[in-house]
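Colleagues,

For the teaching module next term, I've prepared a clean inverse folding example: a structure given as tokens, and then the sequence designed for it. I'd like students to try predicting residues themselves before seeing the answer, so please don't circulate the second half yet.
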């Protein structure tokens, strides 16, 4: 418990120790999809395989589609060199004991399952307690391990859903730092954790920090797309979602030109990925229509609203179109007066 507390209270961006005898693989379960592509909603996660006797920390170079879950691979060493000799930090206690590792891993999973059940009962206090215990168990595998990143994300998502954004932000920062090393800087789970961090910063009113984080994500997507030719379609779907979220922040900052450019790029990416008649275009159409209305470009707003109406399948979407049209007409009436 003390070791976990010390690690969580360390300054951000402190280098994380790499443990040479533990490699872990994690799978994140995503929920609460966005209309273009799912965002990072990783309420509860599970480790599928752990404890290989190879070196840890590295880049799992595939940033797959946000519609699918993916295992994050660990592939590089954590050695430091002194006078040409490799030196490794000592592993956590009993990390080389398979039985002890299996016992703690089972205990870690049990806490996560108990937290999931408590959350379903809307017992946030019990869920929080179980996730904190899971975080303590994850410390056994090291501060830069996949179980630690998973536990940080779990607890952060619980705090976000409970409206405790100030407590969620540092956990998301730690998780992003850890995933940079375990999954890789351009891996899907890392990118989505950063998107969640950016949205948390936005909701806290920390717009400059949020803008910087979104810019970081888009830069990483550029690098991933250059390196992963066969995964470009999926990467561009992720980009469309990130662009839409970043555009909302631009509007809040009064940067309407940047917001429009991002929304039009998101729309073009969505059209190329899913076709011009896909319901997935509903979100960029409505976002653009709302922006055009705010800018008093009412003819464009009405046209975009009509296109969105054609794609509205769900009752909630249809209600959204009705409210959007009312806002557009109200803007027109105000302008006429």
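(Answer key — instructors only)
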């Amino acid at each position: 418990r003390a070791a976990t507390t010390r690690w969580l209270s360390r300054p951000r961006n402190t280098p994380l120790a790499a443990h040479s005898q533990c490699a872990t693989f994690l799978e994140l379960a995503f929920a609460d999809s966005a209309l273009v592509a799912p965002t990072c909603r990783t309420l509860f996660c599970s480790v599928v395989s752990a404890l290989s006797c190879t070196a840890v920390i590295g880049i799992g170079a595939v940033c797959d589609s946000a519609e699918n879950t993916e295992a994050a691979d660990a592939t590089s060493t954590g050695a430091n060199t002194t006078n040409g000799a490799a030196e490794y930090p000592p592993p956590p206690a009993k990390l080389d004991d398979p039985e002890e590792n299996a016992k703690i891993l089972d205990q870690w999973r049990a806490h996560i399952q108990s937290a999931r059940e408590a959350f379903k009962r809307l017992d946030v206090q019990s869920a929080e307690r179980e996730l904190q215990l899971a975080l303590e168990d994850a410390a056994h595998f090291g501060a830069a391990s996949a179980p630690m990143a998973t536990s940080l994300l779990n607890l952060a998502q619980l705090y976000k859903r409970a409206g405790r954004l100030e407590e969620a932000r540092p956990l998301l920062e730690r998780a992003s730092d850890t995933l940079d090393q375990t999954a890789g800087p351009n891996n899907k789970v890392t990118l989505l954790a950063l998107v969640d961090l950016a949205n948390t910063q936005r909701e806290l009113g920390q717009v400059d920090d949020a803008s910087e984080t979104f810019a970081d994500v888009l830069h990483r997507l550029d690098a991933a797309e250059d390196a992963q030719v066969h995964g470009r379609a999926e990467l561009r779907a992720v980009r469309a979602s990130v662009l839409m979220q970043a555009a909302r922040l631009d509007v809040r900052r009064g940067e309407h030109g940047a917001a429009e450019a991002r929304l039009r790029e998101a729309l073009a990416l969505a059209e190329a990925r899913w076709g011009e008649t896909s319901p997935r275009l509903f979100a960029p159409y409505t976002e653009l229509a709302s922006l055009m209305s705010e800018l008093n470009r009412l003819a464009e707003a009405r046209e975009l609203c009509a296109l969105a109406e054609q794609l509205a399948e769900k009752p909630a979407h249809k209600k959204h179109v009705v409210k959007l049209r009312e806002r557009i007409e109200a803007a027109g009436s105000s302008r006429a007066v």
